[in-house]
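re: ur msg from earlier - yeah i can do the 2-hydroxyethylsulfonic acid complex, just paste it... oh wait u already did. ok heres what im feeding in:
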Amino acid sequence: MVSLKEQIVFITGASSGIGRACAFAFAAEGARLLLAARRRERLEALRSELTAAGAKHLHLLTLDVQQRTEVEQAWNALPAEWRSIDILVNNAGLSRGLDKLHQGSIEDWEEMVDTNVKGLLYVSRAVIPGMVERGRGHILNLGSTAGDITYPLGAVYCATKAAERAVNDGMRQDLLGTPVRVTSVDPGMVETEFSEVRFHGDRDRAAKVYQGLTPLTAADVADAILWAATRPPHVNIARISMTTIDQANSYLFNRKPQ
Ligand code: NDP
Ligand code: 8X3
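and the outut:
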């Protein structure tokens, strides 16, 4: 296992779920953490918790990855000591709505495409040139089983994760010949705020998504991300597909009757 001590890890979407779990996992290995999300108060609370847990080097970035100019400005304004990113966890993402395509909300579609696809690209475009220049780096992109098989009512979210898969593979091809590694981590159902966000804050509807089965936890996914990041430098884990034992693919679940 390669040491992560003092390595700079940039995690987008660190204010909740998988990104937050990654922050704890990387902090436990002594990494320096650059933590980004839109909700500043969440990031501040996270900083207190991480500091209490022993983390020493933290920098917060209030950032909406949908906003190209904001990403560029935030990146350019970063203190020099935080710009040499070793590991980028491209995690910020969301689903909105569960609708037949011809009845879907165009605002929902735009938010998903702008965050999951364009946001990932904007952040990558800012960070990767420095990795190539320094001759070190690892990009871990959050995909999904939704990118493998489209499920009913989820066409646009699934399309964004299919796009992530294409971008991930393209990045790996374009970085061939450099030591920069590229990994897609593709979980199935993980219990986070994901469903609450999908249903625009309807917590009862969100809770039903996880009823009658044992979903993955955010910590399970962070564990896989940490594993990929700590392989020897010549080992590139291209893709990790992972689900709870109660899920076989995008739409086949073992749900116990309630
Ligand atoms: P959460 O809703 O718990 O966390 C999502 C994170 O993304 C939050 O920190 C949120 O922060 C951030 N985020 C959303 N939009 C933006 C934006 N425009 N700019 C910056 N940050 C943003 O969900 P998860 O942890 O489950 O999701 C994380 C990733 O994992 C996503 O890419 C998701 O698609 C993927 N995934 C999730 C699965 C699941 O079942 N939960 C399964 C497979 C993949 P804030 O709102 O403060 O900006
Ligand atoms: C999140 C998993 O199946 O809810 O990417 O879309 S799913």
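cool cool. Residues 144-146, 154, 157, 188-189, 250 surround 2-hydroxyethylsulfonic acid (ligand 2) (CB under 6 Å). ping me if u need the other ligands too
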